[in-house]
């Protein structure tokens, strides 16, 4: 069975919008483009939260010139900074540009932003008859080099890192915590409410409200995407204390959300990284995208990769300024990537 990229499936967007996470009320007003030959997600945004491409400085520059940066048009998967396709089917490029320009004029939107297109989508958007500034960022990703098992992965690391990872895993094995994982219909029903408690707690600890409701996850579970979900659950005395939520397709595992009700050393690494790596090896998945940020991922075998976003500003002067900024910023991003690669723990890095 072919498992398609989950974050562009109707079930994913329906769950986001029906549970109210992506709605006019939350500043994610859907204005998707529907064409006979395809569909493209598009939101009218009143803020830049939940995007993970940070443009606060651009908003400030607009304000300094007496202009409003918001609303903006955004083509993205809400709350999901993961690279992938950004339209379904084969919509006409000129038609997309006409629709974007018309919507920008209708709503007074300052700009259009395409977030985290993969390489194929990036090329397709760059071919549109519209000036798009290309911005780069550096994320971390694990690659499966046909490892037979987790020990085979460890064998490719330096002795120091190999010992460190084994020590981290043994620390959890020797603790009172018991870890289980399940996919699709095999996920116990009561795990979902336990997972959500852990997920929401990570936001409450920071004095924030979670982006997603429990209903969102329940809708995903009951949708055609249900078979592409995985939960890893940590239990103590048979009571859930931490959990990690993943989605996957035939090529990639996507680590999305995690939370813990207890502060246990090494538990985050076990649930969010090592269990994911093992899953990729067992399923023959080629990549593991654990989400943004976290330089601690480097020492656990996650490699720095360049991700992209594209930006069109209605004001030509700001388009020129943003293009110049992105070009200069890209030099720093590439320098950071090169430096990060020197920290990778693989044995070929020795000497």
In terms of topology, how is this protein built?
Elements: H1 10-18, E1 28-30, E2 33-35, E3 38-40, E4 43-45, H2 56-64, E5 72-75, E6 88-89, H3 93-107, E7 111-115, H4 119-126, E8 133-143, H5 150-155, H6 159-173, E9 178-183, H7 189-204, H8 214-222, E10 229-236, E11 239-248, E12 252-260, H9 267-283, E13 287-289, E14 303-313, H10 316-341
Parallel strand pairs: 5-7, 12-13
Antiparallel strand pairs: 1-4, 2-3, 3-6, 4-5, 7-14, 8-13, 8-14, 9-10, 10-11, 11-12
Explained architecture:
With 351 residues, this protein is α+β, with helices and mostly antiparallel strands. It folds into 2 domains: 31-137 and 304-349, no CATH class; 145-285, 3-Layer(aba) Sandwich (Aminopeptidase). It is 37% helix and 23% strand. It has 10 helices and 14 strands. It has helices at 10-18, 56-64, 93-107, 119-126, 150-155, 159-173, 189-204, 214-222, 267-283, 316-341, and strands spanning 28-30, 33-35, 38-40, 43-45, 72-75, 88-89, 111-115, 133-143, 178-183, 229-236, 239-248, 252-260, 287-289, 303-313. The strands form 2 sheets. An 11-stranded mixed sheet has the order 1-4-5-7-14-8-13-12-11-10-9. A 3-stranded antiparallel sheet has the order 2-3-6, with no helix packed on it. The longest helix has 26 residues, at 316-341. The chain is globular, with a radius of gyration of 21 Å.
Give a short overview.
This protein is of the alpha+beta class and 351 residues long.
């Amino acid at each position: 069975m072919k498992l398609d990229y989950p974050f562009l499936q109707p079930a994913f967007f329906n769950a986001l919008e029906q549970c109210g996470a992506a709605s006019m009320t939350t500043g994610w007003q859907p204005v998707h483009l529907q064409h006979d030959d395809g569909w493209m997600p598009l939101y009218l945004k009143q803020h830049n939260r939940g995007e993970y491409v940070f443009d606060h400085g651009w908003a400030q520059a607009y304000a300094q010139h007496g202009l409003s940066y918001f609303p903006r048009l955004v083509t993205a998967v809400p709350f999901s900074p993961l690279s992938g396709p950004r339209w379904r089917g084969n919509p006409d490029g000129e038609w997309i540009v006409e629709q974007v320009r018309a919507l920008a004029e209708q709503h007074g939107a300052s700009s259009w932003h395409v977030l985290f297109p993969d390489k194929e989508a990036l090329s397709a958007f760059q071919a549109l008859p519209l000036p798009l500034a290309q911005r780069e960022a550096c994320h971390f990703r694990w690659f499966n080099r046909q490892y037979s098992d987790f020990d085979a992965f460890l064998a490719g690391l330096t002795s120091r890192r190999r010992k460190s990872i084994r020590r981290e895993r043994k620390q959890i094995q020797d603790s009172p915590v018991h870890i289980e994982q399940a996919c699709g219909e095999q996920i116990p029903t009561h795990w979902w409410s336990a997972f959500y408690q852990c997920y929401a707690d990570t936001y409450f600890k920071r004095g924030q409200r979670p982006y997603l409701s429990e209903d969102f996850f329940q809708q995903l579970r009951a949708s055609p995407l249900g078979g592409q979900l995985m939960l890893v659950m940590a239990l103590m005395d048979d009571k859930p204390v931490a959990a990690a939520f993943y989605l996957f397709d035939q090529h990639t595992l996507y680590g999305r959300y995690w939370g813990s009700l207890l502060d246990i050393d090494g538990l985050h690494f076990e649930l969010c990284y090592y269990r994911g790596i093992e899953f990729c090896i067992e399923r023959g998945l080629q990549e593991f995208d654990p989400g943004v940020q976290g330089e601690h991922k480097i020492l656990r075998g996650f490699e720095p990769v360049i991700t992209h976003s594209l930006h069109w500003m209605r004001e030509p002067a700001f388009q020129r300024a943003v293009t110049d900024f992105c070009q200069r910023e890209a030099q720093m991003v590439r320098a950071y990537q090169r430096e990060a690669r020197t920290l990778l723990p693989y044995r070929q890095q020795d000497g």
